């Protein structure tokens, strides 16, 4: 692995070593930058579990077709944006990466300059156990069809729910709180009712929190030059933060390594036994199209025609369907 190339990026992770909210002590275990992604991750050429209009390719194909490439501290992961697809053939070529390392108690900081955008897109950065849903899943960055802000979600087996009050900036995904979020896009921590994380109880939806920051997803994220997502998983909580790169939302104490500030999403073990619901997790980075979420929300999100037809017939629409990672740093 390469060492951190930027002192600023390194300082942004130092807050996790000095968090006043946690007694844990961390040291860096993985620094993944540029070409280091190819040794830290495996390419998963698998059928899409979310039924997307996608064809996940292996490493040789991805590199030959420039779907992934690295230069300096830049790693690009993208979908094909030149091929018109046959309706009877496979979906649009894209990439799904899985980390070779697994993590339990840890902190991970994702420095991302650009994320995939466009109707039909469904990009995600997440962590998941091998035995789903029994070993749990945490979605850190996820959304569809350019409809921000970011959605942070836990997916678990039965008997895991969140408490009725949590100190976090984000909003539980419900009609009342969504309306409040759109009307009051501020950074005031709110109290929200708990919800059920069980995939069996929620038709796989889990328990989600929507960011209060409009620049946390899609074109707005890209227009701001990206930002940082961070996750801390302990034996008793999972916490996610987001800071936009250029919006001024990165607190000075974060830059100086003092504290984390109020998180976007906070999931404590008050009503969920973490030891029995979360196992070792791999990091996943993927870009799919349509499928169970982007496809079902496609028309309501104001996208043209049908999702499958749009993905098949408009390759140039996906010229901006790419991730640009400046790095991932993991602390254990």
Notes on the structure:
This protein has helices at 7-14, 36-40, 59-64, 175-183, 218-223, 252-255, 274-277, 291-295, 307-313; strands spanning 28-32, 41-43, 54-56, 68-71, 74-78, 92-94, 96-99, 106-114, 121-129, 137-142, 151-155, 160-161, 171-172, 207-210, 227-233, 237-244, 265-268, 271-272, 281-289, 322-331. It has a single domain, classed as Jelly Rolls (Sandwich), CATH 2.60.120. A hairpin with an 8-residue loop joins strand 10 (137-142) and strand 11 (151-155). The model is unreliable at 1-15, 17-22, 175-194 and 253-259 (pLDDT under 50). It is of the alpha+beta class and 332 residues long. This is Endo-beta-glucanase. Residues 19-302 form the GH16 domain.
- Residues in helix, %: 10-25%
- Structural category is alpha+beta
Assigned CATH architecture: Sandwich
Largest sheet: 8 strands, antiparallel
Distance between the termini: 16 Å
Q: Please state the average pLDDT score.
A: 86
Shape: globular
Work out the strand percent. 25-35%
- Mind telling me the C-alpha Rg? 19 Å
Number of helices: 9
Assign the CATH class. Mainly Beta
Based on the structure, what is the oligomeric state of the protein chains?
Answer: single chain
pLDDT < 50 stretches: 1-15, 17-22, 175-194, 253-259
The figure for the number of domains is 1
Organism: Heliocybe sulcata
Protein name: Endo-beta-glucanase
GO biological process, one term: glucan catabolic process
GO molecular function, one term: hydrolase activity, hydrolyzing O-glycosyl compounds
Kindly list the characteristics that best describe this protein.
disordered N terminus; signal; 9 helices; Jelly Rolls; 8-stranded antiparallel β-sheet; alpha+beta; ConA-like_dom_sf; 16% helix; globular; 332 residues
């Amino acid at each position: 692995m390469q060492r951190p190339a930027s002192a600023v990026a390194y300082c942004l992770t130092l807050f996790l070593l000095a968090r006043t909210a946690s007694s844990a002590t961390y040291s860096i275990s993985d620094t993944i930058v540029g070409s280091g992604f190819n040794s830290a991750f495996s390419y998963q050429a698998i059928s899409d579990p979310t039924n997307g209009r996608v064809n996940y390719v292996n490493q040789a194909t991805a590199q030959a077709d420039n779907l992934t490439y690295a230069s300096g501290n830049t790693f690009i992961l993208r979908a094909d944006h030149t091929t018109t697809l046959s309706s009877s053939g496979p979906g649009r070529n894209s990439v799904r990466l899985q980390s070779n390392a697994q993590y339990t108690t840890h902190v991970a900081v994702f420095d991302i300059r650009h994320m995939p955008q466009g109707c039909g897109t469904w990009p995600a950065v997440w962590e998941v156990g091998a035995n789903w849903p029994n070993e749990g899943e945490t979605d850190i960055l996820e959304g569809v069809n350019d409809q921000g802000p970011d959605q942070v979600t836990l997916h678990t087996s039965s008997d895991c729910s969140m408490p009725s009050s949590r100190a976090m900036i984000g909003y539980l995904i419900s009609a009342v709180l969504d309306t409040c979020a759109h009307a009051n896009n501020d950074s005031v921590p709110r109290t929200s009712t708990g919800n059920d994380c069980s995939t069996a109880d929620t038709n796989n939806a889990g328990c989600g929190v929507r960011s209060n920051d409009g620049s946390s997803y899609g074109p707005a994220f890209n227009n701001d030059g990206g930002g940082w997502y961070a996750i801390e998983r302990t034996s008793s909580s999972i916490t996610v933060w987001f800071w936009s790169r250029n919006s001024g939302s990165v607190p000075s104490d974060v830059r100086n390594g003092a504290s984390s500030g109020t998180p976007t999403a906070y999931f404590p073990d008050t009503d969920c036994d973490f030891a029995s619901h979360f196992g070792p997790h791999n990091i996943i980075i993927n870009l799919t199209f349509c499928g169970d979420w982007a496809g079902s929300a496609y028309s309501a999100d104001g996208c043209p025609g049908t999702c499958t037809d749009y993905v098949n017939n408009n390759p140039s629409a996906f010229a901006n369907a790419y991730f640009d990672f400046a790095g991932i740093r993991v602390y254990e």
